[in-house]
Design goal:
single chain, alpha+beta, 5 helices, 5 strands, 19% strand
Length: 149
């Protein structure tokens, strides 16, 4: 014997159940929500009619009616979050594919460590076009302490 809760779920002795309309919530979203609740309750899905899935949540331990109703409410919220994530994922798929392809192209175009080492060895390290390696005295003709005396 079951009764209906204030949120519209069917409440049994140790479980709560409800139908999920696949035209509102894709099956992938339902699976995602179920997966997140596996540690908290036993989840059973069955198809009741075309486009509707009966979802039954059974508490792993003894639970009150309020706890079962809260569990179903949290599940319904997670189902909505999963559907939103799925929709965002689908709408941004091309952007993610583009950035992934660009990153992979950049990696293949980057020089290897061996190529960088060969480039370093080929450079003339002793060239000093800005005369940075020239001592102060040689460059200016006096030491910094000579100006004070």
């Amino acid at each position: 014997m079951s009764k209906e809760t204030r949120l519209g779920f069917s409440l049994g002795q140790d479980h709560i159940s409800f139908e999920v309309d696949e035209s509102v919530y894709p099956l992938e979203a339902l699976y995602g929500a179920c997966y997140l609740f596996l540690e908290r309750c036993y989840v059973f899905l069955s198809r009741t009619s075309s486009g509707a899935v009966l979802t039954r949540l059974t508490a792993r331990e003894e639970a009150s009616e309020q706890a079962l109703e809260a569990l179903a409410g949290e599940f319904a919220n997670e189902l909505l979050a999963q559907a939103t994530r799925l929709q965002l994922s689908q709408s941004t798929a091309r952007i993610r594919e583009y950035y992934t392809a660009a990153a992979l192209r950049a990696v293949t175009a980057a020089p290897s460590v061996d190529e960088l080492l060969a480039e370093l060895e080929s450079e003339e390290l002793l060239e000093d076009p800005l005369e940075i390696m020239v001592p102060w005295e040689e460059k200016h003709g006096k030491t910094p302490g000579d100006a004070e005396s």
